[in-house]
């Protein structure tokens, strides 16, 4: 079966960071989806994120990761926008994540 995966980059990043520290911050999301859906063909991964605002170093690291991901994996579509101040409360949301890597 052909698969298009939708990834919430914000929650993926914070979930991985809280559970594994910095070990998986440069995660290959296409390979992750392929590992989760071994019998399917991954045709696209839509990676949704918000660019960090007010932290220039963090924003630069994030943009570097996104550029590298897009260059390395043409099947990745990155959908991003600046993180708005009124959305800061959303940053505190944490969803349980148990990704076996």
Concise summary:
With 101 residues, the chain is α/β, with parallel strands linked by helices. It has helices at 9-20, 29-36, 56-72, and strands spanning 2-8, 41-51, 76-82.
Notes on the protein architecture:
This is NYN domain-containing protein. There is one protein chain. Helix content is 37%, strand content 25%. It is built from three helices and three strands. By secondary structure, the protein is α/β, with parallel strands linked by helices. It has one domain.
Query: What count of helical segments does DSSP give?
Result: 3
| N-C termini distance | 23 Å
Approximate strand percentage: 15-25%
| Gross morphology | globular
Total strands: the figure is 3
Looking across the biggest beta sheet, what order are the strands in?
Answer: 1-2-3
* Structural class assignment: alpha/beta
Q: For the report, how would you describe the main beta sheet?
A: 3 strands, parallel
Total count of domains: 1
Fraction of helical residues: 25-40%
| Unreliable residue runs | 87-101
- Overall pLDDT score: 84
- Return the string of H and E elements: EHHEHE
Provide the gyration radius in Å.
14 Å
Organism: Microbispora catharanthi
Protein name: NYN domain-containing protein
């Amino acid at each position: 079966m052909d698969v298009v995966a939708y990834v919430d980059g914000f929650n993926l990043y914070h979930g991985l960071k809280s559970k594994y520290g910095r070990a998986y911050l440069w995660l290959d999301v296409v390979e992750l989806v392929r590992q989760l859906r071994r019998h399917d063909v991954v045709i696209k991964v839509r990676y949704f994120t918000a660019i960090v605002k007010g932290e220039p170093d963090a924003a630069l690291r994030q943009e570097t990761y996104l550029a590298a991901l897009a260059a390395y994996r043409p099947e990745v579509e990155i959908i991003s926008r600046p993180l708005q101040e009124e959305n800061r409360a959303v940053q505190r949301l944490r969803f349980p994540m148990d990704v076996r890597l």
